[in-house]
Amino acid sequence: MNATIERLQHWIKEVPARLANLSEHDFSERPQPHKWSKKEILGHLCDSALTNIQRFVRAQYESQPYVVLKYAQNQWVEHMNYQNQSVSQVLNLWIALNTQALSVITTIPEDRLMYTCDIGEGQIVTLEWLIKDYVEHLEHHLGQIFGP
């Protein structure tokens, strides 16, 4: 779990530094009409943080297996209106949400990391798996923003 925490800490510091190199135009341009811009991808990561913080908290006190809340990612990105916000507004939200996610993750007692979560389609995972998957998902999308 320590490695996952360290990776999230790394990105909370690294993302703002890397975004300083992108122009508002580059960050807002959609590669195709129905594809997300880099700004919308970062917004999607905000939505992911909002959803996963709730999962990380609820999984600790609801009956097991905790049934994870699903969300419609395209609708969230559209209705959250990230495309029409400034880079700094989306970035500040991303930093705040991931700082909070980190705060929640680092205070979960070790025994609760083994609590079970139902992620659908008959898949039962641990809370620890859910947290690691969250960071892997984050890194996947950061790769889309920053490239290899």
Q: Can you write the helix and strand succession as a string?
A: HHHEHHEEH
Tell me the strand percentage band: 5-15%
Mean pLDDT: 96
Rg: 16 Å
Give the biggest sheet: 3 strands, mixed
Low-pLDDT stretches: none
The dominant shape is: globular
Number of domains: 1
Number of helices: 6
CATH class: Mainly Alpha
Indicate the percent of residues in helices: 55-70%
CATH topology name, in short, is Four Helix Bundle (Hemerythrin (Met), subunit A)
CATH superfamily: dinb family like domain
Q: Which structural class is indicated by helix and strand composition? A: mainly alpha
How many E-type strands? Answer: 3
| Widest β-sheet, arrangement of strands | 1-2-3
Question: End-to-end span in angstroms?
Answer: 25 Å
Give the name of the CATH architecture.
Up-down Bundle
Q: Mind sketching the topology for me?
A:
Elements: H1 2-19, H2 24-28, H3 38-58, E1 66-67, H4 73-80, H5 87-106, E2 116-120, E3 123-126, H6 127-146
Parallel strand pairs: 1-2
Antiparallel strand pairs: 2-3
Explain what you see.
The chain has a three-stranded mixed beta sheet. It is 62% helix and 7% strand. It has a single domain (2-146), classed as Four Helix Bundle (Hemerythrin (Met), subunit A). The chain is mainly alpha-helical and 148 residues long. α1 (2-19) packs antiparallel against α5 and α3 packs antiparallel against α6. The radius of gyration is 16 Å and the shape is globular.
